[in-house]
Amino acid sequence: MRVIRLLMLALASLIASTAASSAQGTISDLPRRETLILENPEGTIKNPGWFNIWAINAGGQYTGLHQLALDTLWYIDPERGLDGSWQNSLAAEKPIYNADFTEMTVKLRPGIFWSDGVEFTADDLVYTVETQIKTPGMRWSALLSLNVDSVQKVDAQTVVFKLKKPNSRFHALFTVRFNAIWMMPKHIFEKAPDPLRFDFNKPVSLGAYTLNSYDPDGKWFLWQRRDDWQRTTLGRYGEPGPKYVAYVDPGPPDKRVIAQLNHDLDVIHDVAPEGMFTLAKQSKSLKTWFKGFPFGHPDPTLPAVIFNLQNPTFQNHDVRWALALLIDIRAVAMASYRGAATISAIAIPPTGTHPDDYHKPMQDWLAGFELDTGKEKIKPYDPTMGQQIATMLRPSMGDQIPTDPAEIARSFGYGWWKPNPTAAAELLERAGYSKRGDAWYTPDGKPFAIKIMVEGDSRPVMTRAGTMIAQQWRQFGIDAKIDVAQGTNMLDRRGAGDFDTFIGWSVETYGGHPDLAFFLDSWHSQFVAPAGKTQSPRNWQRLTSPELDKLIEQIRTVSFEDPKTVELGRDYAKFMVREMPIIPLMAYNVFTAMDETYWTGYPTAEDPYTDPVPNWGNSRLMMVRLKPTQP
Amino acid sequence: MKPFLAYLAKRLLQFAVVVFIGVNITYVITHATPIDPVEQSVTAATSFGVTSPEAVEMMRASLRELYGLEGSPVEQYLSFWRRVVVGDFGPSLSAFPTPVSTLIWRAMPWTVGLLLASTLMTWIIGNLIGGLAGYYRRNRLLKLAGIVSMGVHPIPYYIVAFVLLIVFGFVWPVLPISGGASMNVNREDSFGFALDVLLHSILPSLSLMAVGIGGWFMGMRALVSNIVTEDYVTYAELAGVGRRRILRSYVMRNALGPQVTGLALQLGAIFNGAIITEQVFGYPGLGSLLISGVHAGDYSLVLGITSVSIIAVSAAVLVIDLLFPLIDPRVEVR
Lengths: 631, 334
What we know:
The structure holds 2 protein chains of 2 kinds.
Chain A: H1 2-20, E1 35-39, H2 65-69, E2 74-76, E3 86-88, E4 96-97, E5 103-107, H3 122-134, H4 141-147, E6 148-155, E7 158-163, E8 175-176, H5 186-189, E9 209-214, E10 220-225, E11 244-248, H6 253-261, E12 267-268, H7 273-282, E13 286-287, E14 297-299, E15 304-307, H8 317-325, H9 329-337, H10 354-359, H11 363-368, E16 371-372, E17 377-378, E18 381-382, H12 385-397, H13 405-412, E19 416-417, H14 421-430, E20 434-436, E21 439-441, E22 449-454, H15 460-476, E23 479-484, H16 487-496, E24 501-504, H17 517-520, H18 546-557, H19 564-579, E25 582-584, E26 588-590, E27 593-595, E28 599-600, H20 621-625, E29 627-628
Parallel strand pairs in A: 1-11, 2-8, 22-23, 22-24
Antiparallel strand pairs in A: 2-3, 4-5, 5-7, 6-7, 9-10, 10-11, 12-27, 13-27, 14-26, 15-24, 15-25, 16-17, 18-19, 20-21, 28-29
Chain B: H1 2-31, H2 37-46, H3 53-66, H4 73-84, H5 100-135, H6 140-152, H7 157-171, H8 190-227, H9 231-238, H10 243-269, H11 275-280, H12 286-295, H13 299-327
Helix pairs in contact in B: 1-13, 2-3, 5-6, 5-8, 5-10, 5-13, 6-8, 7-8, 8-10, 9-10, 10-13, 12-13
């Protein structure tokens, strides 16, 4: 008995003593008011002492390394940027091409220094390119080998690339959308015997922060503002607010919510919609991209129903359109994001500057678009779908739902396709399908069955969307089922073409720039793998179309800055509507939650100076706008 | 002495065969995974950034060569065993070129520390209370302890862990809810660091103990309930031997045999890591490492951790078999 009593007493004393010392604080000896704590969605880093980002997948990337310590020639912000979405970073001006895009000249910004005091010059750029070409297996070796014939330093601030073939988008390799080819410090790497096996620990920084310390178990990385932050490219925007920035692994979603409610985590990268709603109800210091519903930041990524176009079932345009007309996007938005979705009828994400370049100007064309079902011509577009979602949410979310039509369009999207089972049936009948009883049959008499591959718990929002779509198709009489392929299995099957359809994305854009070549160039039919072979990113649907090829070839000949890129982009969007090779659903809304207990000045839809999602390279801009809440 | 040496040799041979078969099965399973580590690396390298299909093809070829995946299956199998016999599991494919053994050694102290302490404490408390409850059957406090421990035992582990997380992490936020130690804690201050690690281990170990004690409690109580009806216990009571001595020397010691075997198996399984515990509490260790290896298709890493676990479980069983005669005097080597 005495032993039990003693044990209970010991446990109680231990808990009481921890309470007295408020043991929950995450920082041991750092001033919390000077420290910004962000979630690193990579989680725990297996190999925390590895900072050589030029070796593939060897260590962490979003540990603050690529946001705060590395730099490259240009950035395109997914939002508006601090002085425009295009930023000349290490480059002093935009890329200079010759007439046939076989040569690109780069003028570098002078007065930029590595954190060990060595000046950044053309030597570093040339070394970065030549080392990766010489070392197959480095991260950007293949891209550089394919493109670069020679790279030459003209003077300390000028470099000329001679390309193997014309490439009007060569600069994109050095332009951060999420990341890009980061500059290597020549004076450090040239001493390493093998650049692939060099850990680059402690990293020499080109950004405004340098590594203070890291967890040997990979849970956190702490960066400290450089004393000479003025000698970095961020310096031109002013002094970064936080003296210390920590990227941490806060654990599963529930722990992230608890940590932020306890003010131990300033920025959550992403949580499930329910987690965001809990924070919205319980946190008085919460800041989100949209002031109210739908809260999350729409990434320039477009979740869609992606057909395997090498599967004969989906090679018929009528079948694809029929399946689109059976989807009620309102129910999909409610099921996936609990309504907090930004829908898009066109195959361009409704985010950044895209609504102004594409969605808004294309409303008339979409409203007038006609679809011939064989028995009638219908106008399938309903421009009020975004407003209908807002109306559905208003009774439960009240004032959080905007009333201004422009704001509704920005938050929930413009229109989408009206559910039209009659037209869908007509299209299927024209394609040779027939209905017997409650079930649809293929032209060769088999039950019409479709599997929708989803990632299960790895990506619950997309899984919910797929489940709802399967349900809607089943209600119509199609034997639609969910096919769960968790995380990595999904990646393998997606590449191998081992799916009927899946919920995912093959469209990723800059967000802050209308050029679509970022993803569209890889959709050229020259890159489509035969059935059974692995498909390279990003044309997972394996679309081949002479019409689209011609469009892509036209884009290749047009300069990145040419206004024609928008015209060609709209032509692409129209082609995608007519052909429906994927069914676009919505933007990938990321529920980034920011806490204002210690810091203010986060980017929002009202002040969209950058993307708040903390693993994006562009999120470094946050540092110069954040100010301490408490003096 | 000769019978013992023969017994030892036989058991060592059994140990070697079990390890060989176990590692081979693991090798086959891990290499049959549909997850391709090269594809995982390609995805990680090309996600969100500029890429081109031609470049991806080149990258794939380079990585296959770099990761040593080019040889025939037989060559890869032989190469694997050549390395394993010298304790080298090769480089991790998801943290290339870091050796798997480096990753395992880094994670092991956390797992072993947490699970060894909580397993031993669970075993001691569960068996102690169970033994007392079986002997002093009318004691109200012990009855209450039995109801509580058996009441918690069937609750799924993750529910218990989550409740503890909410209670001590949010409602009464007094305990750390994530990680093995505080950020930026000075690891050279051994006392401060040890205290910090101890605080971080309270919730995970409490959750393991809460769920684990009931099992040991019930097992021990049942064993003791049977033993107290044995003739030799009745005889000892009639002979006037003290109750404490009867409990300690006549009852508990005889009941411990199966419990010790169970403990040995649990201690061996420590090297698997407590996957759910480590995930729920964000605790560093082998379980988290194993899961990350599975997700990344890093079969070198999965194979390394599983092999260590197979060896540990087999070794634990071997040691217990050898020590059993010392624990239970009724057992002898024949």
